[in-house]
Every structure is written in C-alpha cells, then in structure tokens.
Write a structure and sequence with these properties.
The protein is α/β, with parallel strands linked by helices. It has two domains: about 260 residues, Rossmann fold (3-Layer(aba) Sandwich), CATH 3.40.50; about 60 residues. The chain is about 40% helix and about 15% strand. The chain is built from 13 helices and seven strands. It has a seven-stranded mixed beta sheet, with helices on both faces. The termini are far apart. It binds S-adenosylmethionine (SAM). The site of S-adenosylmethionine (SAM) has 16 residues, from loops.
C-alpha cells in the first residue's frame, strides 16, 4: 500500500478531508454551545491520524480537526468543557512528526498522542467508553484506515452501542469487490461476489454500505449514509460511511453530501446515471434525474398508500434512511396534498426533523 503522506493528497482524498472538515463544523457547535449540557467531557478521536501534512503542505485530518477546534478554544474554557482529542497512528515516526508540528502551534487543548494498533487501542478503551453511562458522552470518531481490515463486524457493533457517538470511516470498497471470495478476506468482511452487480462496478461502495446497514439491529437508533469516492482517471471506488445515533446528525451529514453531489447526494462522480447536461436524452424515460430520486419517490408513495408510514416524522426518517432529504420527500407530499391523499393542512418542514413531534399524522 502506497504511503499517503509520501505524495500529494489526490482529489478523492481532498474530498474525504473536506467532508470531515464540513461535518465537524456542523457537529462541534451542537455539543459545544448546547444550552443545557448533560456532559462535560467531549471526545474526538482520529485513530489513523498520519503525520499532519502531505508533501505539498496540505493539512491532513488531525490538523483539520485542531484548526476547527481552535475556533471554539475560548468557548470551551468558558463553559468548563473537558474536550479531549486523541490522535493515534501505528507508525511511531509519523506520530512523533505530528506531535512536534502540533506542539509548535501551542494549541491550548487537551491532546493525547498515541502510537498503537487501532484494534488493540479501540478494544483497550472501549470498556471505559461503555461503563457508568459514558456511552452517552458526545464523541466523534474518524477511522481513516488503509484498505478494509479494521472496521470489522465486532468493531461496528461496538460503535453501534455508543449512543452519542458519530463516526466516519473510510473503506476501499473496490478491494471488497475484488477479493471477497478469498478465505483470508472473509475474516474481515463477509460479502460474496454475487452481491455485486458486475455491470455497475462503480456502485460497489453501495454494496459495502448495505452490508454494514444490515448489521444494525431493528430496535437500534443508528442512521448511516455512504459517500463514494473515485480518483480522477481511475475506475477504483473507495468510500466513506457516516454513522450517527441522532436524526440531527444524519440530517447535517446528508445536507453536506447533497451540497457536494446535487445528483444523488452520495458520490464525487455520477453514481446513479443522472442524465447530465449535454448527454443523450433517454427516450424511454423522460425523467433525467438520478435513478435514486425516481425510486425514492415511487417507494415513498407506496409506503404512504399502504399505510406503512403514517406520520410526518416517519416520512422524513424514511427519507434519511434512503439517503435523501426532507425537500425530496416534500415533492411527493405536496403532490399527495393536492390530490387529497393526505391532510391538506399538514405543515411540511425541511429541517430540524429531530424536533418534530411524532404525532403529526398524514391522514
Ligand atoms: C489513510 S492514512 C491516514 C491519513 C490521515 N487521516 C490524514 O488525513 O493525513 C492511514 C494511516 O494509518 C496508519 N496505520 C496503518 N495501520 C494502522 C493500524 N493498525 N493502527 C493505526 N494506524 C495505522 C498509517 O501509518 C497511516 O498513517
């Protein structure tokens, strides 16, 4: 595996880091400025932190995290918050380099530099994270692994237990497609070749995403969203998987994803065959939008007609689980209102779904 820090970050890496930065911008104020705080301790983990910069001086994840935090340094002090940043990398020389760069910047933050294997470290600190109500403390975890090995079923299930933890992990989904039949590989991820649509290799991250999504027990409140990444001039697809236990978390992530990808809200390329400007029109389907939106609207209508969803909050939650936004659901709801299929006076909203009462019925 090529060392990411021995060259300039490529375009897909830059987007990965942009997503990290933009999400942190949304996440931090929620936990740092909340009026009624039920916590003092807040944790941010960068488990595969690297050495800080690429060869062109572009900042990597730990620098991005710290620069975002810097904006809140005074607020953190004033509110007596105990914000802890944990930066880890297995490579001793990288973590030493990172430490010296950061110490020179004199950040007045509680930063721990660790030099451990991710799995060993995670399993070492996990019991403390789930004991004495600590599973309710706000945490953000960035798991920027090489390849696919580290976010196993066991680690994913552990993340699912941390009730106020948002996480973002990277995975080389095309490796899964390529090596899934190897016994050695099945130790890490149990997806078989048949799960992939070989005519759509560029959608392989969706298959990997579904594998993790299917792991979530039915009663658990955990929302996931994928973001596929492709390097310019290559066909290999990687991806991010975001997870949050909170409707506000998934809403913020999906808004960011749709800002980056106005066609499908989930890739840095045209993942879902939207008919792009200048391309041939499909005579058999005049709808030029991404297939995802077309399927979403169709399924949403069916769910409402069959009374499988009967509240407004249920509709928007369904949209998030589909990787769509309230504005996409509202297109369907407006049409159904006009046709008298749902209550005409129902007030549609497009944000802060977590605040919506669960008893607003559609009919
Ligand atoms: C994709 S790079 C991380 C890049 C970093 N997030 C950034 O933005 O600069 C992966 C890093 O994981 C480290 N690494 C590899 N195996 C590891 C392990 N088992 N545990 C922790 N770190 C590991 C590597 O040394 C490398 O710096």
């Amino acid at each position: 595996m090529a060392d990411i820090h021995s060259e300039g970050f490529d375009d897909a890496t830059q987007i990965k880091l942009k997503i990290l930065k933009e999400y942190l911008k949304e996440w931090l104020p929620v936990f740092l400025r909340k009026k009624e705080k039920f916590w003092i301790d807040i944790f941010i983990y960068d488990f595969f932190a690297g050495e800080g910069f690429d060869t062109n001086g572009n900042p990597g994840s730990p620098i991005i995290i710290l620069e975002e935090l810097l904006k809140y340094q005074n607020g953190i002090k004033k509110e007596n918050l105990n914000l802890k940043v944990i930066l880890n990398d297995i490579d001793e020389s990288k973590i030493k380099k990172l430490e010296s760069v950061i110490r020179a910047k004199n950040f007045e933050l509680d930063i721990k530099f660790l030099n451990q294997d991710f799995t060993v470290l995670f399993n070492e600190i996990y019991p403390e994270m789930v004991s004495n109500g600590n599973d309710r403390l706000p945490r953000f975890m960035f798991i920027d692994q090489y390849g696919v090995k580290y976010v196993t079923k066991d680690i994913f299930n552990k993340l699912a237990e941390l009730k106020r933890t948002d996480f973002l992990f990277f995975i080389s989904s095309h490796f899964v497609k390529r090596f899934s039949e190897l016994t050695e590989f099945k130790k890490y991820i149990e997806i078989s070749k048949a799960d992939f649509d070989l005519t759509k290799p560029y959608q392989c991250h969706r298959v990997v995403f579904d594998y993790f999504k299917d792991m979530i027990p039915e009663h658990k409140e955990l929302y996931l969203a994928p973001f596929s990444l492709q390097k310019e001039n290559t066909s290999n697809v990687y991806g991010l998987i975001f997870g949050s236990h909170n409707l506000l978390g998934i809403e913020k992530f999906l808004k960011l994803a749709w800002k980056l990808d106005g066609n499908a809200g989930e890739a840095n390329f045209n993942i879902d065959e939207a008919i792009l400007e200048g391309q041939t029109f499909d005579l058999f389907n005049p709808d030029t939008r991404a297939k995802k939106l077309q399927f979403f609207e169709k399924e949403l209508k069916e769910q409402i007609k069959e009374k499988k969803i009967n509240t407004l909050k249920g509709i928007y939650t369904f949209a998030f689980n589909y990787g769509c936004l309230p504005i996409h659901a509202n297109v369907v709801l407006k049409e159904m209102k006009e046709k008298g299929l749902i209550k005409k006076d129902i007030k549609l909203v497009s944000s802060s779904i977590h605040k919506l009462e669960g008893n607003i019925y559609l009919k």
